[in-house]
What does this fold into?
Amino acid sequence: MIRTRFKVVFVLILSVAFLGSVRVAHAEADNLYQRLLSKGIGGLERRDLGLALQNFEEALAMQPEGVEANYYLGVTHARANRFNKAERHFLKAISIERTFMPAQFDLGVLYYQNKKDQKALRLFSMVQGMDPDRARVYFYQGVILRRNGKTEEGDAKLDRALALDSELAAEINFLRGAGHLQAGQSRAARKSLQEVITLTPEGELADAARDLLAQTGGASGKKKRLSLQASLGLQYDDNVILEPRSASASAAGITKKSDFVGLLYLLAKYAWLQGDDWRGDLKYTYFLNFHQDSSLTDFDVQDNHFSASVGRRFGKFDADIEYTFQVATLGGETYILAHRFRPRAMLHHSRAQISELVYQFGMKDFEDIPLLFPANSERDVKTHFLGFSHYLVYLQDGVVYGTLLYEMEAAGDSIAEDDWGYDAFGLKLGTALPPWHSLTAAFELNWRMRQYKNPNQLAPLANPGLKREDDDLLFIVSLSRPLNDALDLSAQYLYQLNDSNIAAFDYRRNIVGFIITAKY
It folds into this structure.
């Protein structure tokens, strides 16, 4: 009896030991399998396909039904352009585990690359059903639909891909640029291909975009040095105000009269320095407005700006410095002379997000104009401006942006001069919507709160020590459309409200206008 019990116990001990050794052996085998996979993945990352293939084949020999081993062998053969072997291993991985998405997606890409479009679309549809937020699925669907002549359906897929992953912006712009070029739409092709170069200045994609850009008859790999622009416009202004280039309006410059105003704007830009990292520009702009009402012709402005800049790119960082000299005249007499020095830094977080920091120092020298502005020189100021902006590209061609700013103008010490010194805080929000049937809509809201530092001469008698405070709100909406490769037509509406605690500076303004622009 005792011997029998001893035998039973001995058998149980042997069984437990055997099962334990089996578990240990299985664990060791699984660990070795995982190590082989890790070594193979390392080979793929270092582009050592021979090492990757050796490790994945050893892993497959250990586990012939291993999903991962079959999948990574498919990836390795695909990278070596061995289509049939890659397809066989992807299909084997899917047969072992029907919902193994990596194999389904990569097999779809393999079919796409070999133009087996219907098979690719079926696989991408399955992946989309399991993971509806995978951007690359919509991207490949869009590419396949476009090359099969289904442009609208393809573009809808590409828009969805871009909404999910803004990093695809450059690839999608390249794709659309190539499509526009093939369709003979050179202007649209240039716009998309230039956007590729802006988003990714270096690399194979940028080089390919430059090659296609050269075929459009526009810019090639090297940008043209000289660019010209001319604009003609007509506006209806219900409150003509003399306010050249962001100067705060004087009481004498607010007419409260309406008029039709003609506009002329010219720009010439010469790139004196062009390089992979360095750039430099010389720029001249000319602005002229002329009023129909003869009583307002004294408010006809001629405004000239001369600028020189130099900049450099440091990887994701971009910096430049610009100097500008301005001279504006009224009726042939000098109204203002100004100098501006502006350093700027930009950070390209990604292809679709950019941050910008700007500082600006300037001096404004206002000149006396007999009869019209006899005490204009009292407005001389030194200016400081600091602004931080962030730009976000969406749906390929759309952009939304915001700016926080601080502005200070330091005036003289006399009673008349110190009217013009102020501190200001502001906010700017805007967006340009993606084109719709060749129409582009843009909106901008600009708000500034100016707090002047000293009592104003025009303060009411009841409160002679009153300091001027202005809330300046500016809203602009525009709608533009290209007429051909060189001409654009735009319609604009502007609303401005300056809410001041001193009645002489309080005003509202509405402007409606049409502008035609020619570019070279």
